[in-house]
Amino acid sequence: xxxxxxxxxxxxxxxxxxxxxxxxxxxxxxxxxxxxxxxxxxxxxxxxxxxxxxxxxxxxxxxxxxxxxxxxxxxxxxxxxxxxxxxxxxxxxxxxxxxxxxxxxxxxxxxxxxxxxxxxxxxxxxxxxxxxxxxxxxxxxxxxxxxxxxxxxxxxxxxxxxxxxxxxxxxxxxxxxxxxxxxxxxxxxxxxxxxxxxxxxxxxxxxxxxxxxxxxxxxxxxxxxxxxxxxxxxxxxxxxxxxxxxxxxxxxxxxxxxxxxxxxxxxxxxxxxxxxxxxxxxxxxxxxxxxxxxxxxxxxx
Length: 301
Prior knowledge:
Elements: H1 2-9, H2 16-29, H3 34-48, E1 53-60, E2 65-70, H4 76-82, E3 85-86, H5 92-98, E4 103-105, H6 115-123, E5 128-135, E6 141-149, H7 157-195, E7 201-205, E8 208-212, H8 214-220, H9 224-227, H10 238-254, E9 258-265, E10 271-283, E11 286-300
């Protein structure tokens, strides 16, 4: 994904813009919000096209509107005016954007073809614009990005190219953020299911525990906070630790399911023999294993 961002920008401007793309990428990977990412793209676009103003909005498919507008150098009043801009199926702007084509207006005061959008832009002091849709890899409308000028203006080929690159950056970023949100939603649903069962479960990511349910804390005697700050080897019996560690790490490397047996030693020192069922999963976007424990013999001192 990092290389995709760099490839899409195809740097041919000042070299400091490469640093801006890298910082944008770092914000994205570090959990940046739509606001941070789209404002960053707007700033990059304005550096490529001096004298312009960039404006980006996200399509809300549930309501059929454009909202969540971002424009670091345009008045907030314009963003409020455009909030929940209607894009019903069959409308002129919906068809324009879903076609994937750019739409230009060299004089917004004289050409009323941009309807309510044009009125709002003129009210903010803008006189010309060039708009391109942001489409997913499957052609689904994600949003739009536009370049605007304070005087009548016909966009030059290099300005059109810069906007096209910006829409590609936006597509990669928005789809990445949507995938991350889906993972968060899946994890929340998984946690709800795991917490409702009496079967001990924990997620192992590398050598660290990423998640434990309440049944695991009951079995080991350690709190969730304690378990999340140490490796599982801490509560596996020393005589079984090496073999269990090798099996669990191998299951992660090979993304393979399986079973193994070992003895747990709880916080009081009591020993319980368990069978562990191992399932490869993705946890917060990275390979991990879900380990489900079944007690096979009673606890012993």
